[in-house]
Amino acid sequence: MAQTYASEVSGLGTTPTTNSNGAVQGGRVRRFRATITLASQADGDTVVLAQVPAGYAFAYGILNASATLGSSTIAVGVSGTAAKYRAAAVFTAAAPTLFGVSTAMDDAPLGSGETVILTNTTAALPSSGTLIVDLYFSAP
After folding, report:
1. What's this model's pTM, rounded to 2 decimal places?
2. Are strands 81-90 and 130-139 parallel, antiparallel or unpaired?
3. Fold of 23-139
4. Which are the contacts of 22, defined by CB distance < 8 A and separation ≥ 6?
5. Considering Cα of 67, then 71, then 72, then 75, what sign does the dihedral take?
6. What is the pLDDT of residues 96-120, one digit of tens each?
7. 3-state SS assignment for residue 33
8. Bridge partners of 133?
9. Which of 1, 7, 62, 120 has its Cβ near the most Cβ atoms within 10 Å?
10. What is the CA radius of gyration of the chain?
11. Do the strands 130-139 and 57-65 form a parallel or antiparallel pair, or are they unpaired?
12. How far apart are the C-alpha atoms of 84 and 101, rounded to whole Å?
């Protein structure tokens, strides 16, 4: 039977073998928490969530809110790529909810640090309540 290697461990199948990137194999997971007080932030407003250092690789995120965001549509990303980590969508769960765009999860570790933002892309956010965004990255 043929044996193949996942992208992250492809160096194990070469001579000489090479090590995997520590940010994606055997790295430590680091959380970046952002607590947002909802106050009718307008359509188009952004909220800075975290400053992530170079060398970190995105794993996943979790949204949790004290109340539904109604018809508000939010995206998580960076300036110029607002939906890098979470495509613009409503969040009505009011319970912890995982998110992560596969194209961000399979990216190489960040070549330079980046500022992660939440962008409100439709209706204003609710006038009260709390939204918590946890971002999880792995790093060597």
Report:
1. 0.86
2. unpaired
3. Jelly Rolls (2.60.120)
4. 139, 140
5. positive
6. 999 998 888 777 889 999 999 999 9
7. strand
8. 34, 63
9. 120
10. 17
11. antiparallel
12. 7
